[in-house]
Amino acid sequence: MKRKRITQLFPFLLPIRRTQKKLFFYAKMYFDRNRYAKAKAPEFLPFCIYETKSKLLNENTGFDMKYQENKVFNLHLASEPVNGILIRPGEIFSFWQRVSYAEKNERYKDGLCVVNGELVTVPGGGLCHLSNFLFWMFLHTPLTIVERHPHQVKDFPSPDEDEPDGVDATVNEGWLDLKVKNNTDLTFQIEISINEPYIYGRIFVDQAKGHRYEIINREKSFFKKDGKTFERVSVCRQKIDIKSEQVVSENLLYTDVCEIGYQLPEETAVAEEMS
Fold this sequence. Notes:
Glycopeptide_resist_protein; globular; 4-stranded antiparallel sheet
């Protein structure tokens, strides 16, 4: 049996633990000698290398839709300190280093969040929608992923059916961050905007390049283990020449394994796997 954490045994200690973790979390970033992306520019850089959008509301959660509406409110707050940020050569973009400023004028509303393995409502819930969105954008650039944490459980189907699986990035202030480092000689810039029913994103650079990236799945399958259903999927990135539209290279980025917390369609093939 998995040993329970102290905060699971004594939930009243969780606020104290959170405060402690946040102090150490930001102190570590302050003293780690990394250069974090903090500057914005009045205008966007000249070349857009990727743009995308994502549906804001998910009707498959099983919760009151007001929490989805609250999520949209939270995303408006969180996207403001990210929108327009420059990631210069040698700099690291940290989700929490930017988003920690989001509540300076207004407070977050209650949204959905996984706490101690359960989907519950908490202030600021739903920010993973933004971290997922940013991670998806970063995968379409040569930026290096420094820190990324997958969701352990997929609680409901994605509203974006065409989006590849296994490309999420959960965040938890004080514990889990999303970080990318610019190891190139380019300067990148993020644009985030919200115009319901979508959140929109674009990545700009200061120099034109002759290729683009696409993210695809390989070897997707489902299996059972210890009475639970899991999804295993390989996430690959293709480098494509813009002029010829030919695939120049394809690399396996990682293999993602995630528990499925909802009912799969009856026709889905699910293999049995030994514990």
